[in-house]
Specification:
CATH superfamily of one domain in chain A: Butyryl-CoA Dehydrogenase, subunit A, domain 3
Oligomer: heterodimer
Strand order of the largest sheet of chain A: 1-3-4-7
Distance between the termini of chain A: 35 Å
Order of helices and strands of chain A: HHHHHHEEEEEEEHEEHHHH
Structural class of chain B: alpha+beta
Strand order of the largest sheet of chain B: 1-4-5-8
Largest sheet of chain A: 4 strands, mixed
Number of domains of chain B: 3
Number of helices of chain A: 11
Number of strands of chain A: 9
CATH superfamily of the largest domain in chain B: Butyryl-CoA Dehydrogenase, subunit A, domain 2
CATH architecture of the largest domain in chain B: Beta Barrel
CATH class of the largest domain in chain B: Mainly Beta
Radius of gyration of chain A: 20 Å
Helix content of chain B: 40-55%
CATH class of one domain in chain A: Mainly Alpha
Shape of chain B: globular
Distance between the termini of chain B: 55 Å
Largest interface: A-B, 46 and 44 residues
Order of helices and strands of chain B: HHHHHEEEEEEEEHHHHHH
Chain lengths: 351, 390
């Protein structure tokens, strides 16, 4: 188990961070918040290979692993960049890699890896454990408005649907940097994929939850860094407010929770890569990092005082993303319920 | 590495653990340079890298060799020894380190005082020069092992006319000297794990001063840094420590489970597992030669979890949680979290956020040294110690 970042991962982080600081600084994200996904930035990320890291080279991807995908997710969390990374590069891609014996799935993976197309997995973003059925109206689907191809589970079989043939209705999203939409594929022509669809979707939800933990760590890191910088510069009562113990102790606690969250998120990314201890590692990370990220974002707003409550300051983007991420792919409570039997701590004894 | 293995083999050949007296074996091990391999030659070591130590320990344990009961002499090993090595004279190193390591001479630490806890530098125990001796008078507190210690590391005020950090000197104090009075300090658990130590005109030869007169504060930092390293701990398996105890209590009592305690237990289980992973990550950073400041996160997390877990356990135990195992004034040699009942764990864990630096002081340190936040305005830094309000 390696919980550190390798040199290759640090290089990857540096190039993604460069791109994002150039193209998705918080002020930029805030300014274009009503415009949906940033397709130009998304194309750049695909050209860098950052959207197909955990896809094998034989399937057109980078042949790296979820550890590297998690590093990209961390940087995207730090910038709350409005790109369909979770919906397309993580969830839809994970389903397709699971069903890669099917030629249509393979072909789509290649197009996704080359950045020619974008996909979305048609399940409510809040899904966890059970696989929802894609018939009828599916509410609150992440990144669906940006997708060309919809990946839809129907009665145990995954179908591909051209997004132009479905009704995709963007809705007003709590998290404006990862907009959701309602999707209805009724009457649309579909391409069914061979292979165990439910297993593929379940594996994708697990991978997505594990990767989200890293996004949450990146998000929390931005909140901590930004808050600490503000506490050093903001003066009241004739001193920097960061010299007051009441505030210091709160950011010290945030830092502490981030140290622990990072270890859990790295463990989940490592487990997804090696296939060892996956279910426990992911649910530990997702439940812990969800809480850590929400707390970091809430503290960021509070410790900024009045400016933290304004639309002008980007803190709210992080609060909204953190709160949506907490619900996404299993709330902390649902992940703890998943863990209970896995770690032999059931509520009811089974005889 | 093979040199170490050769030495281990030679030690075992010359001192068969099955027939050699325990102390004789430990002395021979020290003299072979296999006590703490990173120490210098002649002082129980062979100037080898620190990470070679587990090789020695495991090989000797496998051969059935006795160890020096490291938990029983933790203060000597973890605090006194590194300080004497770093700041002591050659005579002090030769005199003290061998019996310290073998456990023949137990050490304790005379640092905290009733009026100097978090603010250790405010300490008021006075040491006055008298010929070749120092004469020490004052009161120390929270001294574990004082009742069976032969030696103590001691910080005392030698100059009250300068600011508090500048007037402190570091000594080795003979706990059997006249004027040393050790009294048990009973704590909320009922036991007396610690002591109060009253020093009345205790004579310490100048040869037992460690470092320069007035350099005691800086030298004490060596001691305290090593204390934090020691508390950082070793790798634990999943469900090691307090969480495992509480998890087993849960498994043993299906009839007491409720949905509310279930979710709280799982939340604490998750946090314990993540803190364990953070400890593994910290050691991986150290092994990769890039130690970070994350160590200070461990103690904060450990204290909070130990308290929350033990509190949940008492509540969960319902009618059994109303009972306590034993209020008699025991004198334990070390903390035994698992050998006693839940109520003991709950009460003893209250000390985890106080001992070795309170959680509040730790948060100040994190905020100032890790995050770079400005210090509180200080009113005591440049004032002579004798003029400080107290």
């Amino acid at each position: 188990m390696n919980l550190l970042y390798t040199d290759i991962e640090e290089d990857l982080r540096a190039s993604v961070a460069d791109l994002l600081s150039d193209r998705a600084a918080p002020a930029t994200v805030l300014a274009r918040i009503e415009s949906g996904a940033d397709t130009a930035l998304w194309g750049e990320l695909a050209r860098m290979g950052a959207t197909s890291l955990h896809v094998s080279e034989g399937l057109g991807g980078q042949g790296a692993g979820y550890r590297e995908t998690a590093v990209v997710a961390e940087e995207l969390g730090r910038s709350v960049a409005p790109v369909p990374f979770l919906g397309s590069a993580v969830l839809a891609t994970a389903v397709l890699t699971h069903l890669a014996d099917d030629p249509a799935a393979r072909a789509l993976l290649g197009r996704l890896a080359r950045g020619e197309t974008t996909a979305a997995l048609v399940v409510p973003l809040s899904s966890w454990e059970s696989v929802p059925d894609g018939r009828g109206l599916v509410r609150s689907v992440a990144d669906a408005a940006a997708a060309d191809v919809l990946v839809v589970p129907v009665a145990g079989v995954v179908h591909l649907v051209d997004a132009r043939d479905a009704v995709v209705t963007p809705v007003t999203s709590l998290d404006q940097t990862r907009p959701i939409a309602d999707v209805d594929i009724t009457g649309a022509p579909t391409t069914p994929l061979a292979g165990p669809g439910d297993d593929a979707v379940r594996a994708a939800l697990v991978a997505g939850a594990g990767i989200l933990a890293s996004e949450q760590v990146g998000l929390a890191q931005w909140c901590l860094d930004t808050t600490v910088a503000y506490l050093k510069e903001r003066h009241q009562f004739g001193r920097p407010v960061g010299s007051f113990q009441a505030l210091k102790h709160r950011v010290a606690d945030l830092w502490q929770s981030l140290v622990v969250a990072r270890a859990a998120a790295r463990h989940a990314a490592d487990a997804l890569t090696t296939g060892v201890d996956v279910d426990i590692a992911v649910s530990v990370a997702k439940s812990l990092c969800s809480t850590a990220a929400v707390r970091a974002a809430e503290e960021c707003v509070q410790l900024h005082g009045g400016i933290g409550m304004t639309w002008e300051h980007p803190a709210h983007l992080y609060l909204k993303r953190a709160k949506a991420d907490e619900i996404a792919l299993g709330t902390p409570g649902r992940h703890r319920a998943t863990l209970a039997p896995l770690v032999d701590l059931p509520l009811q004894s089974t005889p | 590495m093979s040199e170490i293995q050769d030495r281990v083999a030679a030690l075992l050949a010359a001192n068969d653990p099955a027939t050699t007296d325990r102390l004789e074996f430990l002395r021979a091990r020290f003299d072979a340079g296999l006590a703490w391999v990173h120490f210098p030659v002649g002082l129980g070591g062979m100037a080898a890298p620190r990470d070679a130590q587990p090789v020695v320990d495991q090989a000797l344990a496998a051969a059935g060799a006795p160890d020096n009961s490291p938990r029983r002499i933790g203060i000597g090993l973890g605090m006194a020894a590194p300080t004497i090595l770093a700041h002591g004279t050659d005579e002090q190193r030769l005199r003290f380190l061998r019996p310290l390591w073998t456990g023949e001479e137990v050490w304790c630490q005379l640092f905290s005082e009733p009026g100097a806890g978090s603010d250790l530098a405010a300490l008021g125990t006075r040491a006055r020069r008298d010929g070749d001796d120092w004469v020490v008078t004052g009161q120390k507190v929270w001294t574990s092992s004082a009742h069976n210690a032969r030696w103590a590391i001691l910080v005392a005020r030698t100059d009250p006319d300068v600011p508090k950090h500048a007037g402190i000197t570091y000594f080795v104090c003979d706990m059997t000297a006249p004027g040393v009075d050790v009294r048990p300090l009973r704590q909320i658990t009922g036991e007396a794990e610690f002591n109060e130590v009253f020093l009345t005109d205790v004579r310490i030869p100048d040869a037992h001063r460690v470092g320069e007169v007035g350099a005691g504060w800086r030298i004490a930092q060596t001691t305290l840094m090593n204390e934090r390293v020691a508390i950082g701990g070793r790798p634990v398996p999943r469900e090691g420590g307090m969480v495992g105890v509480v998890a087993d209590t849960w498994r043993a009592h299906p009839e007491r489970r409720t949905a509310a305690t279930h979710d709280r237990l799982l939340e604490l289980w998750v946090e314990s597992e993540a803190l364990r992973l953070a400890g593994i990550r910290l050691r991986q950073q150290l092994a990769a030669g890039s130690p970070g400041p994350e160590g200070s996160a461990m103690k904060l997390g450990f204290a909070r979890l130990a308290q929350a877990l033990s509190g949940l356990e008492v509540e969960f135990l319902a009618e059994d949680g109303l009972r306590y195992d034993d209020w008699t004034q025991r004198r334990p040699a070390m903390v035994d979290f698992t050998g006693r009942d839940a109520g003991y764990r709950y009460l003893r864990a209250k000390g985890n956020s106080i001992e070795g630096g309170t959680s509040e002081v730790l948060r100040n340190i994190i905020a100032e040294r890790v995050l770079g936040l400005p210090t509180e305005p200080r009113v005591d830094k440049d004032v002579p110690w004798k003029d400080l309000p107290r």
